[in-house]
Amino acid sequence: MSLSPTLLLLLLSLLSQELTARGMSRSRRELSPGLHRAGIRDPGGAYCSRLWTCCPGRSDTCTVPYIDTICYCDLFCNRTVSDCCPDFWAVCLGIQPPFIRKDCERHGQRYPAGATYKDNCNLCTCSDGQWSCDQYACLINHEMIDGINRGHYGWTASNYSQFWGMTLEEGIRYRLGTMRPSATVMNMNQLNVHMERNELLPRYFNAADKWPGMIHEPMDQGNCAASWAFSTAAVASDRISIHSMGHMSPVLSPQNLISCDTRNQQGCDGGRIDGAWWYLRRRGVVTNNCYPFSSTDNQPLSPQCMMSTRSAGRGKRQATMPCPNPYSHSNEVYQSTPAYRLSTNEKEIMKELMENGPVQALMEVHEDFFVYRSGIYRHVPVMAGAPENHRRHGTHSVRITGWGEQLTANGEMSKYWIAANSWGRNWGEGGYFKIARGENECDIEMFIVGTWGRVSMEDMYHK
Ligand SMILES: *[C@@H]1O[C@H](CO)[C@@H](O)[C@H](O)[C@H]1NC(C)=O
Ligand SMILES: *[C@@H]1O[C@H](CO)[C@@H](O)[C@H](O)[C@H]1NC(C)=O
Description:
Structural class: alpha+beta
Radius of gyration: 34 Å
Helix content: 10-25%
Bound molecules: 2-acetamido-2-deoxy-beta-D-glucopyranose
CATH class of the largest domain: Alpha Beta
């Protein structure tokens, strides 16, 4: 674009008229954002009072050094966006300064505007002399913990440092991670366990007593929403040990599933147990020693798959890659037979558990489950009156390892399952929890899965 010379001249003359009218060129001063937007710093300091006079009108030389810049003591400085010295209003005008700095107080200390601190899961910011905090529901909520412990619900709650500072949303998003099976899988034929009429089952059963050394310790999924991989690997580990009569006792690798079973699975962003069982049967996984858990810190993208297998005949597979860590050399692959679904009948689940070992269970986790410490868990209504965002639930999967019953304080018999979670061993009762049995509490009896380890005669001479 080119301007005609006449238009250009006109523009230039308008501009110079404007400048002459003002009597000077535009200075940085008029364009500066002002010195006191976050309140006056050093309000008690002496600035204009150190000059012998306040300057009338505009005087760009009427300045005093102020912190890392200069401030003005001429009347022109008193505009909406001000660059006056802190004591200008008091000394030159005899009025209160308009930009009162609004500090906030906390534990006897003053904090400037814009300061922040974290209150559990909420960020608090000092603005206008007050702390204003986010209003997220926190995973650790002391009113809820107190409510549970005061309510005598048959279980106790406690604070967990690993959950402190997380929102409830984050707990649901990062600590669970099992997707509900599709309708087809849900309708999968149930395997019925043969029961004699009036068959008696023990009042207490713990797989760890029947199969010592073959029931594996609960692991910790951290902030990786992959309970689908943890519960599957845990049940398969126990059952391979049991079915090989202890000749093999692998702790199978959840990471192998998280990183390599990626078809329709979301790694640390959730997955399906039917997909996990398919993978265990058709591809197999190595041990946790060989392929250690490394997905942490809310990273939904799981690391690249570092293991692969090839057929070794008769459905067996062997690894084609070394263990993805320098310390372990045993890259043996473990597989299972097809997983089967059990009925929702409490007695049948018990019999299966007693005969074949721990089973996998889907479970709906509510806000109160995170703070479970001991006792027989039931979802309790302590948060019923709280705002809606304090009540959340999501689908999880766990490993049931036993059952029992006990008398409650009011003389009733209370039946429970013993189950292993994947939140580490400092959660609950050494990583385990008890949950009400026979009433489908939190859907725990709704989808129960078992499997056989693929164990051959050669494996029996494995040790
Ligand atoms: C200076 O600014 C304050 C606050 O904006 C105002 O109340 C006052 O009238 C101004 N004084 C002069 C002389 O412009
Ligand atoms: C809960 O645990 C966190 C982290 O250990 C701690 O900072 C917090 O003060 C605890 N809350 C209470 C009330 O004990």
